[in-house]
Write a structure and sequence with these properties.
By secondary structure, the protein is mostly helical. The chain is built from 15 helices and no strands.
Protein backbone atom coordinates (compact mmCIF):
# COMPACT_ATOMS: atom_id res chain seq x y z
CA UNK A 1 0.00 0.00 0.00
CA UNK A 2 2.83 2.39 0.86
CA UNK A 3 4.49 1.60 -2.45
CA UNK A 4 1.28 2.32 -4.38
CA UNK A 5 0.88 5.61 -2.50
CA UNK A 6 4.45 6.57 -3.33
CA UNK A 7 3.89 5.78 -7.03
CA UNK A 8 0.69 7.82 -7.01
CA UNK A 9 2.42 10.70 -5.28
CA UNK A 10 5.29 10.64 -7.78
CA UNK A 11 2.83 10.67 -10.68
CA UNK A 12 0.96 13.62 -9.16
CA UNK A 13 4.23 15.50 -8.65
CA UNK A 14 5.05 14.92 -12.31
CA UNK A 15 1.69 16.39 -13.32
CA UNK A 16 2.35 19.44 -11.13
CA UNK A 17 5.78 19.81 -12.73
CA UNK A 18 4.18 19.75 -16.17
CA UNK A 19 1.64 22.33 -14.99
CA UNK A 20 4.43 24.76 -14.14
CA UNK A 21 6.07 24.11 -17.49
CA UNK A 22 2.83 24.88 -19.36
CA UNK A 23 2.20 28.00 -17.29
CA UNK A 24 5.72 29.24 -17.82
CA UNK A 25 5.65 28.55 -21.58
CA UNK A 26 2.39 30.48 -21.90
CA UNK A 27 3.78 33.35 -19.82
CA UNK A 28 6.98 33.45 -21.90
CA UNK A 29 5.09 33.47 -25.20
CA UNK A 30 2.76 36.23 -24.03
CA UNK A 31 5.50 38.50 -22.68
CA UNK A 32 7.82 37.91 -25.65
CA UNK A 33 5.09 39.26 -27.93
CA UNK A 34 4.89 42.46 -25.90
CA UNK A 35 8.67 42.73 -25.60
CA UNK A 36 8.74 42.75 -29.41
CA UNK A 37 6.54 45.86 -29.37
CA UNK A 38 8.90 47.45 -26.83
CA UNK A 39 11.88 46.68 -29.07
CA UNK A 40 10.19 48.17 -32.14
CA UNK A 41 9.60 51.40 -30.24
CA UNK A 42 13.41 51.92 -30.01
CA UNK A 43 13.14 51.91 -26.22
CA UNK A 44 16.18 49.64 -25.92
CA UNK A 45 18.08 51.90 -28.27
CA UNK A 46 17.34 54.83 -26.00
CA UNK A 47 18.48 52.84 -22.96
CA UNK A 48 21.68 51.91 -24.77
CA UNK A 49 22.28 55.57 -25.58
CA UNK A 50 21.72 56.49 -21.94
CA UNK A 51 24.15 53.72 -20.96
CA UNK A 52 26.87 55.02 -23.29
CA UNK A 53 26.46 58.64 -22.19
CA UNK A 54 26.26 57.70 -18.52
CA UNK A 55 29.34 55.47 -18.78
CA UNK A 56 31.33 58.32 -20.29
CA UNK A 57 30.35 60.79 -17.59
CA UNK A 58 30.74 58.11 -14.91
CA UNK A 59 34.37 57.61 -15.92
CA UNK A 60 34.97 61.36 -16.06
CA UNK A 61 33.51 61.84 -12.59
CA UNK A 62 35.63 59.04 -11.11
CA UNK A 63 38.76 60.72 -12.46
CA UNK A 64 37.97 63.87 -10.47
CA UNK A 65 36.31 62.26 -7.44
CA UNK A 66 38.39 62.19 -4.23
CA UNK A 67 38.91 58.79 -2.66
CA UNK A 68 37.38 60.15 0.56
CA UNK A 69 33.98 60.42 -1.15
CA UNK A 70 31.23 58.72 0.97
CA UNK A 71 30.60 56.05 -1.66
CA UNK A 72 28.70 53.80 0.74
CA UNK A 73 25.55 55.91 0.47
CA UNK A 74 25.48 55.55 -3.30
CA UNK A 75 26.00 51.80 -2.95
CA UNK A 76 23.10 51.63 -0.49
CA UNK A 77 20.86 53.63 -2.82
CA UNK A 78 21.67 51.36 -5.76
CA UNK A 79 21.73 47.92 -4.13
CA UNK A 80 19.28 47.85 -1.22
CA UNK A 81 16.06 48.29 -3.27
CA UNK A 82 17.13 45.51 -5.65
CA UNK A 83 18.04 43.18 -2.78
CA UNK A 84 15.12 43.80 -0.41
CA UNK A 85 12.28 44.25 -2.90
CA UNK A 86 10.78 41.54 -5.05
CA UNK A 87 8.76 38.39 -4.49
CA UNK A 88 8.24 35.00 -6.11
CA UNK A 89 6.36 34.90 -9.41
CA UNK A 90 4.10 31.87 -8.97
CA UNK A 91 1.96 32.35 -12.12
CA UNK A 92 -1.07 31.27 -10.07
CA UNK A 93 -4.61 32.05 -11.24
CA UNK A 94 -7.84 32.76 -9.38
CA UNK A 95 -9.26 29.28 -10.00
CA UNK A 96 -6.17 27.59 -8.54
CA UNK A 97 -7.41 28.07 -4.99
CA UNK A 98 -10.15 25.55 -5.84
CA UNK A 99 -8.70 23.19 -8.45
CA UNK A 100 -5.17 22.94 -7.04
CA UNK A 101 -6.22 22.65 -3.40
CA UNK A 102 -6.28 18.81 -3.51
CA UNK A 103 -2.71 18.89 -4.87
CA UNK A 104 -1.39 21.01 -2.02
CA UNK A 105 0.79 18.19 -0.54
CA UNK A 106 2.86 18.03 -3.77
CA UNK A 107 2.74 21.73 -4.75
CA UNK A 108 6.29 22.16 -3.47
CA UNK A 109 7.46 20.96 -6.89
CA UNK A 110 5.56 23.86 -8.51
CA UNK A 111 6.74 26.46 -6.00
CA UNK A 112 10.39 25.37 -6.15
CA UNK A 113 10.39 25.93 -9.90
CA UNK A 114 8.75 29.32 -9.38
CA UNK A 115 11.37 30.23 -6.76
CA UNK A 116 14.27 29.25 -9.03
CA UNK A 117 12.90 31.33 -11.89
CA UNK A 118 12.29 34.39 -9.68
CA UNK A 119 15.69 34.08 -8.02
CA UNK A 120 17.45 33.87 -11.38
CA UNK A 121 15.81 37.04 -12.68
CA UNK A 122 16.24 39.07 -9.50
CA UNK A 123 19.79 37.83 -8.81
CA UNK A 124 20.86 38.85 -12.31
CA UNK A 125 19.38 42.31 -11.75
CA UNK A 126 21.20 42.61 -8.41
CA UNK A 127 24.54 41.60 -9.95
CA UNK A 128 24.12 44.14 -12.76
CA UNK A 129 23.45 46.91 -10.24
CA UNK A 130 26.45 45.81 -8.19
CA UNK A 131 28.62 46.02 -11.31
CA UNK A 132 27.35 49.57 -11.84
CA UNK A 133 28.40 50.54 -8.31
CA UNK A 134 31.65 48.54 -8.46
CA UNK A 135 33.87 51.17 -10.17
CA UNK A 136 32.92 53.72 -7.51
CA UNK A 137 33.66 51.20 -4.74
CA UNK A 138 37.08 50.28 -6.19
CA UNK A 139 37.97 53.93 -6.80
CA UNK A 140 37.32 54.87 -3.17
CA UNK A 141 38.77 51.73 -1.52
CA UNK A 142 41.72 51.12 -3.84
CA UNK A 143 43.84 48.12 -2.88
CA UNK A 144 41.83 47.64 0.30
CA UNK A 145 38.76 46.72 -1.72
CA UNK A 146 37.54 43.14 -1.76
CA UNK A 147 37.62 40.95 -4.90
CA UNK A 148 34.61 41.11 -7.19
CA UNK A 149 33.74 37.40 -7.01
CA UNK A 150 33.58 37.45 -3.21
CA UNK A 151 31.30 40.47 -3.09
CA UNK A 152 29.11 38.96 -5.81
CA UNK A 153 28.67 35.81 -3.70
CA UNK A 154 27.56 37.92 -0.73
CA UNK A 155 25.13 39.88 -2.90
CA UNK A 156 23.60 36.59 -4.11
CA UNK A 157 23.31 35.35 -0.53
CA UNK A 158 21.53 38.53 0.55
CA UNK A 159 19.16 38.32 -2.43
CA UNK A 160 18.41 34.65 -1.75
CA UNK A 161 17.72 35.33 1.93
CA UNK A 162 15.38 38.19 1.05
CA UNK A 163 13.45 36.13 -1.47
CA UNK A 164 13.09 33.25 1.00
CA UNK A 165 11.88 35.74 3.61
CA UNK A 166 9.40 37.24 1.17
CA UNK A 167 8.08 33.74 0.40
CA UNK A 168 7.71 32.82 4.07
CA UNK A 169 5.86 36.07 4.77
CA UNK A 170 2.90 34.50 3.01
CA UNK A 171 2.48 32.27 6.06
CA UNK A 172 1.66 35.28 8.24
CA UNK A 173 -2.10 35.60 8.42
CA UNK A 174 -1.80 39.17 9.67
CA UNK A 175 -1.00 41.87 7.05
CA UNK A 176 0.58 43.88 9.85
CA UNK A 177 3.13 41.16 10.54
CA UNK A 178 3.89 40.89 6.85
CA UNK A 179 4.60 44.63 6.82
CA UNK A 180 6.82 44.34 9.90
CA UNK A 181 8.74 41.46 8.34
CA UNK A 182 9.20 43.32 5.04
CA UNK A 183 10.39 46.45 6.85
CA UNK A 184 12.83 44.37 8.88
CA UNK A 185 14.24 42.83 5.71
CA UNK A 186 14.85 46.29 4.24
CA UNK A 187 16.65 47.44 7.39
CA UNK A 188 18.68 44.24 7.58
CA UNK A 189 19.64 44.46 3.90
CA UNK A 190 20.84 48.04 4.38
CA UNK A 191 22.85 47.02 7.46
CA UNK A 192 24.49 44.06 5.69
CA UNK A 193 25.36 46.10 2.59
CA UNK A 194 26.75 48.88 4.78
CA UNK A 195 28.93 46.42 6.70
CA UNK A 196 29.93 44.48 3.59
CA UNK A 197 31.00 47.42 1.42
CA UNK A 198 32.03 49.63 4.32
CA UNK A 199 34.27 47.29 6.32
CA UNK A 200 34.48 43.89 4.67
CA UNK A 201 32.98 40.41 4.18
CA UNK A 202 33.52 39.23 7.76
CA UNK A 203 31.47 42.00 9.43
CA UNK A 204 28.91 41.72 6.64
CA UNK A 205 28.61 37.97 7.20
CA UNK A 206 28.22 38.43 10.97
CA UNK A 207 25.46 41.02 10.51
CA UNK A 208 23.70 38.81 7.97
CA UNK A 209 23.84 35.73 10.17
CA UNK A 210 22.65 37.60 13.28
CA UNK A 211 19.85 39.23 11.32
CA UNK A 212 18.66 35.88 9.94
CA UNK A 213 18.58 34.41 13.45
CA UNK A 214 16.44 37.29 14.69
CA UNK A 215 14.10 36.95 11.70
CA UNK A 216 13.78 33.17 12.28
CA UNK A 217 12.81 33.77 15.91
CA UNK A 218 10.26 36.38 14.83
CA UNK A 219 8.88 33.97 12.24
CA UNK A 220 8.54 31.11 14.72
CA UNK A 221 7.11 33.12 17.60
CA UNK A 222 5.13 35.78 15.74
CA UNK A 223 1.44 35.72 16.73
CA UNK A 224 0.35 36.33 13.16
CA UNK A 225 1.92 33.18 11.72
CA UNK A 226 -0.31 30.93 9.61
CA UNK A 227 -0.42 27.45 11.11
CA UNK A 228 -0.63 25.16 8.07
CA UNK A 229 -1.26 25.08 4.35
CA UNK A 230 -0.48 27.26 1.36
CA UNK A 231 -1.45 30.94 1.52
CA UNK A 232 -3.47 30.74 -1.70
CA UNK A 233 -5.19 34.12 -1.39
CA UNK A 234 -1.96 35.95 -0.60
CA UNK A 235 0.00 34.27 -3.39
CA UNK A 236 -2.70 34.81 -6.01
CA UNK A 237 -3.13 38.46 -5.02
CA UNK A 238 0.63 38.99 -5.09
CA UNK A 239 0.86 37.40 -8.54
CA UNK A 240 -1.98 39.63 -9.76
CA UNK A 241 -0.14 42.75 -8.57
CA UNK A 242 3.11 41.76 -10.26
CA UNK A 243 1.36 40.92 -13.51
CA UNK A 244 -0.49 44.24 -13.34
CA UNK A 245 2.77 46.17 -13.10
CA UNK A 246 4.16 44.27 -16.08
CA UNK A 247 1.01 44.88 -18.15
CA UNK A 248 1.09 48.54 -17.17
CA UNK A 249 4.63 48.84 -18.51
CA UNK A 250 3.69 47.09 -21.76
CA UNK A 251 0.64 49.32 -22.18
CA UNK A 252 3.00 52.21 -22.90
CA UNK A 253 4.03 50.46 -26.12
CA UNK A 254 1.04 48.35 -27.21
CA UNK A 255 -2.61 47.68 -26.55
CA UNK A 256 -2.97 45.35 -23.52
CA UNK A 257 -6.56 44.07 -23.22
CA UNK A 258 -5.64 42.01 -20.13
CA UNK A 259 -4.73 45.14 -18.16
CA UNK A 260 -6.97 45.12 -15.06
CA UNK A 261 -8.27 48.29 -13.47
CA UNK A 262 -7.20 49.16 -9.93
CA UNK A 263 -8.97 52.13 -8.35
CA UNK A 264 -7.80 54.16 -5.35
CA UNK A 265 -10.06 56.83 -3.90
CA UNK A 266 -7.60 59.67 -3.17
CA UNK A 267 -10.47 62.00 -2.39
CA UNK A 268 -8.17 64.86 -1.45
CA UNK A 269 -6.79 64.91 -4.99
CA UNK A 270 -9.74 63.64 -7.00
CA UNK A 271 -11.68 66.73 -5.95
CA UNK A 272 -9.74 68.71 -8.56
CA UNK A 273 -12.38 67.65 -11.09
CA UNK A 274 -14.94 69.79 -9.26
CA UNK A 275 -13.38 72.75 -11.02
CA UNK A 276 -14.53 71.49 -14.41
CA UNK A 277 -17.63 73.05 -15.89
CA UNK A 278 -20.72 70.86 -16.01
CA UNK A 279 -20.85 70.56 -19.79
CA UNK A 280 -20.73 67.70 -22.26
CA UNK A 281 -17.44 69.02 -23.65
CA UNK A 282 -15.82 68.37 -20.26
CA UNK A 283 -16.93 64.74 -20.01
CA UNK A 284 -13.72 63.09 -21.17
CA UNK A 285 -11.57 65.62 -19.34
CA UNK A 286 -13.46 64.82 -16.12
CA UNK A 287 -13.35 61.05 -16.69
CA UNK A 288 -9.67 60.75 -17.56
CA UNK A 289 -8.59 63.15 -14.82
CA UNK A 290 -10.38 60.95 -12.30
CA UNK A 291 -8.80 57.90 -13.91
CA UNK A 292 -5.29 59.33 -13.74
CA UNK A 293 -5.64 60.50 -10.15
CA UNK A 294 -7.15 57.25 -8.87
CA UNK A 295 -5.09 54.76 -10.86
CA UNK A 296 -1.58 53.41 -10.41
CA UNK A 297 -0.31 55.83 -13.06
CA UNK A 298 -0.15 58.69 -10.57
CA UNK A 299 1.86 56.57 -8.14
CA UNK A 300 4.27 55.54 -10.88
CA UNK A 301 4.94 59.13 -11.97
CA UNK A 302 5.37 60.27 -8.36
CA UNK A 303 7.81 57.44 -7.59
CA UNK A 304 9.84 58.07 -10.75
CA UNK A 305 10.04 61.77 -9.84
CA UNK A 306 11.13 61.02 -6.27
CA UNK A 307 13.78 58.52 -7.37
CA UNK A 308 15.11 60.94 -9.98
CA UNK A 309 15.19 63.77 -7.46
CA UNK A 310 17.04 61.66 -4.88
CA UNK A 311 19.51 60.39 -7.46
CA UNK A 312 20.15 63.89 -8.79
CA UNK A 313 20.75 65.14 -5.26
CA UNK A 314 23.05 62.22 -4.42
CA UNK A 315 25.45 62.64 -7.34
CA UNK A 316 27.80 65.58 -7.23
CA UNK A 317 27.94 66.07 -10.97
CA UNK A 318 25.51 68.45 -12.64
CA UNK A 319 25.70 66.74 -16.08
CA UNK A 320 24.90 63.33 -14.56
CA UNK A 321 22.03 64.82 -12.53
CA UNK A 322 20.64 66.41 -15.69
CA UNK A 323 20.87 63.08 -17.55
CA UNK A 324 19.04 61.33 -14.70
CA UNK A 325 16.23 63.88 -14.80
CA UNK A 326 15.87 63.63 -18.57
CA UNK A 327 15.78 59.82 -18.45
CA UNK A 328 13.13 59.93 -15.70
CA UNK A 329 10.99 62.33 -17.72
CA UNK A 330 11.25 60.13 -20.83
CA UNK A 331 10.23 57.02 -18.88
CA UNK A 332 7.33 58.91 -17.28
CA UNK A 333 6.10 60.10 -20.65
CA UNK A 334 6.07 56.52 -21.95
CA UNK A 335 4.10 55.37 -18.93
CA UNK A 336 1.62 58.24 -19.25
CA UNK A 337 0.68 57.16 -22.77
CA UNK A 338 -1.15 54.17 -21.25
CA UNK A 339 -3.83 56.57 -20.00
CA UNK A 340 -5.38 56.55 -23.47
CA UNK A 341 -6.24 52.86 -23.15
CA UNK A 342 -7.88 53.11 -19.73
CA UNK A 343 -11.49 53.07 -20.98
CA UNK A 344 -10.97 51.57 -24.39
CA UNK A 345 -13.23 48.61 -23.63
CA UNK A 346 -15.85 50.49 -21.59
CA UNK A 347 -19.14 49.92 -23.38
CA UNK A 348 -21.07 52.76 -21.75
CA UNK A 349 -18.87 55.44 -23.30
CA UNK A 350 -20.27 54.45 -26.68
CA UNK A 351 -23.78 55.38 -25.54
CA UNK A 352 -23.01 58.92 -24.35
CA UNK A 353 -24.24 61.73 -26.65
CA UNK A 354 -20.78 63.30 -26.73
CA UNK A 355 -18.37 63.80 -29.60
CA UNK A 356 -15.87 60.95 -29.05
CA UNK A 357 -13.11 62.92 -30.81
CA UNK A 358 -12.82 65.04 -27.67
CA UNK A 359 -11.29 62.00 -25.97
CA UNK A 360 -7.93 62.50 -27.68
CA UNK A 361 -7.75 66.18 -26.72
CA UNK A 362 -8.63 65.39 -23.11
CA UNK A 363 -6.00 62.64 -22.79
CA UNK A 364 -3.26 64.76 -24.38
CA UNK A 365 -4.18 67.69 -22.14
CA UNK A 366 -3.95 65.58 -18.96
CA UNK A 367 -0.67 63.96 -20.00
CA UNK A 368 0.78 67.37 -20.83
CA UNK A 369 -0.30 68.76 -17.46
CA UNK A 370 1.21 65.87 -15.51
CA UNK A 371 4.41 66.01 -17.55
CA UNK A 372 4.65 69.79 -17.07
CA UNK A 373 4.29 69.45 -13.30
CA UNK A 374 7.01 66.81 -13.21
CA UNK A 375 9.32 69.00 -15.31
CA UNK A 376 8.80 71.98 -13.00
CA UNK A 377 9.48 69.89 -9.88
CA UNK A 378 12.70 68.45 -11.31
CA UNK A 379 13.82 71.88 -12.48
CA UNK A 380 13.33 73.31 -8.98
CA UNK A 381 15.29 70.40 -7.50
CA UNK A 382 18.13 71.03 -9.95
CA UNK A 383 18.15 74.72 -9.10
CA UNK A 384 18.22 74.02 -5.36
CA UNK A 385 21.11 71.57 -5.82
CA UNK A 386 23.16 74.30 -7.50
CA UNK A 387 23.34 72.66 -10.94
CA UNK A 388 23.90 76.01 -12.67
CA UNK A 389 23.19 76.01 -16.37
CA UNK A 390 22.34 72.28 -16.25
CA UNK A 391 19.22 73.16 -14.25
CA UNK A 392 17.65 74.04 -17.61
CA UNK A 393 17.88 70.41 -18.77
CA UNK A 394 14.45 69.43 -17.37
CA UNK A 395 12.96 72.52 -19.04
CA UNK A 396 14.46 71.45 -22.36
CA UNK A 397 13.08 67.96 -21.84
CA UNK A 398 9.72 69.46 -20.95
CA UNK A 399 9.62 71.51 -24.15
CA UNK A 400 10.51 68.46 -26.23
CA UNK A 401 7.94 66.32 -24.42
CA UNK A 402 5.14 68.84 -24.90
CA UNK A 403 6.01 69.06 -28.58
CA UNK A 404 5.77 65.26 -28.82
CA UNK A 405 2.41 65.36 -27.02
CA UNK A 406 1.02 67.91 -29.47
CA UNK A 407 2.25 66.11 -32.59
CA UNK A 408 3.35 62.47 -32.45
CA UNK A 409 1.27 61.42 -29.47
CA UNK A 410 -1.86 63.14 -30.70
CA UNK A 411 -1.56 61.47 -34.11
CA UNK A 412 -0.98 58.10 -32.46
CA UNK A 413 -4.04 58.45 -30.23
CA UNK A 414 -6.20 59.63 -33.13
CA UNK A 415 -5.15 56.65 -35.25
CA UNK A 416 -5.84 54.31 -32.34
CA UNK A 417 -9.27 55.85 -31.84
CA UNK A 418 -10.20 55.54 -35.53
CA UNK A 419 -9.13 51.91 -35.51
CA UNK A 420 -11.53 51.02 -32.68
Amino acid sequence: MNQEAAVHREGTAGAVRQLWKRRFDHYRQETSRYWAYVARSQFFGFLFLIFIVSSYYYAKILQQLPTSFPYIWIVLLVLVPALAAGSVRTLLKNADRVFLLPLEPVMNVFFRAAFRYSLGIQAARSIVLMLIAWPLYKHCTGTEGQPLWLMAIFVLLIKTANLLGSWQEGRFSSPGWRLISAGYRWVLSAAVVFALFGTGPLPGGVVLLAGLVVWAVMYRLGPGRRAIGVAWDYLIDNERKQQYRLYLFFSGFADVPQLPVRVKQRRWLAGITNRYSFRSSSLYLYLFTKTFVRSELLGIVVRITLVAGLAAAAVQSAPVAAAVCLAAMFISLIQLTSLEQSHRYTFWLQTYPVDPRRKVDAVVRIISAAFTLQGIVLTLLMVLSGAGVYAAAPLAGLALGLMLCATVMKRKFTASFEAE
